[in-house]
Amino acid sequence: MSSHIYRFQTRWTERLQRLRDADAGNSRWTLRVIVIRYLTAHLALIGFVLFASAIGPWNDNFVHTIGPSWDWQDTLPIVPLAVSFLYNVSTTVYVLWREKLVHHLLHIAMDLLLWIVLIPATTLPAWGGTFNLWGKQIDLIDDVPACSDGVDTLTKACYPDLYQIGELELAGVVFSIVVWIMHTFLLVYECFERARLRRYSTAEGKTFGWEELEGKGHRLGSF
C-alpha cells in the first residue's frame, strides 16, 4: 500500500514539475492559473445553484407583468455559469492528467465569450431582483395595512418569501460578479501569455508543430 502511495506521489510531483518546466516555455504562473481556473469553476457552480434555487420559489409567488411571466431574469446567468463550471473543470482535469496545456486561443475565446455574456446575465438579475423590494413602501388597500403587523412596508416578518428569494438572488449576483472578475483576469493573463510565448519561440528560434509538442508531453499548440 505504501509503495502505491509513494509511486502516486512521485508521479504527481513529476507532473507538476513538467508543468513548471521553463524550457518548455511554461511560466511561473502556470500552476497558479490552473488553481484559479479550478476555483473559478466552483464559484460558478455555487452561483448556478443559488440562481437555480431561486427560480422555483419566484415562480410560485410572483409573475412578470411585462414580457414572459416566469422568472427569466434568474435563468439568464445559469447558462454562462454552467459553461464556466464545465469548461474550467474539464480543462483543469485535462492539464493535470495529460500534462499538456490547453491552446491559449481556446482559453482566450472562451474567457472572452463568458466575459461578454456574464455582463447582461448578471446586470439583469441585479436590476430586477426581489431584494430591490426589501423595505419598500406599499399602497394600502381601503386603509387596511397590507400586513397583519399593521405596517405598510415590505418587511421580512410580513413577507418572508420575498426575503428568502432575494437572499438567493443577491448571493447569486455576488458570485456571478466574482466569476466575471476571475474570467477578466484569466482573459488578460491568456492574452499576455500568448504574446510572451510568441516572443519566447522567436528568441529561441523554435517552431514547434503539433506532433513534436505531443511527443514532448509539454504545452500543446502554444506557439
What would you note in describing this structure?
This protein is mainly alpha-helical. It has 7 helices and no strands. The chain has one domain.
Q: Give the H and E element order.
A: HHHHHHH
Low-confidence region ranges: 207-223
> What is the chains' assembly state?
single chain
Q: How many DSSP-defined strands?
A: 0
Alpha-carbon distance between the two ends = 42 Å
Protein name: MARVEL domain-containing protein
Transmembrane segments: 38-58, 78-97, 109-127, 170-189
Organism: Elaphomyces granulatus
Keywords: Membrane, Transmembrane, Transmembrane helix
Helices and strands in order:
Blueprint lengths: L1 H18 L10 H32 L10 H4 L2 H21 L5 H25 L31 H45 L5 H7 L7
Helix pairs in contact: 2-4, 2-6, 4-5, 5-6
Keywords: Membrane, Transmembrane, Transmembrane helix
Organism: Elaphomyces granulatus
Protein name: MARVEL domain-containing protein
Which features would summarize this protein structure in a list?
223 residues, 7 helices, 0% strand, MARVEL domain-containing protein, membrane, transmembrane, transmembrane helix
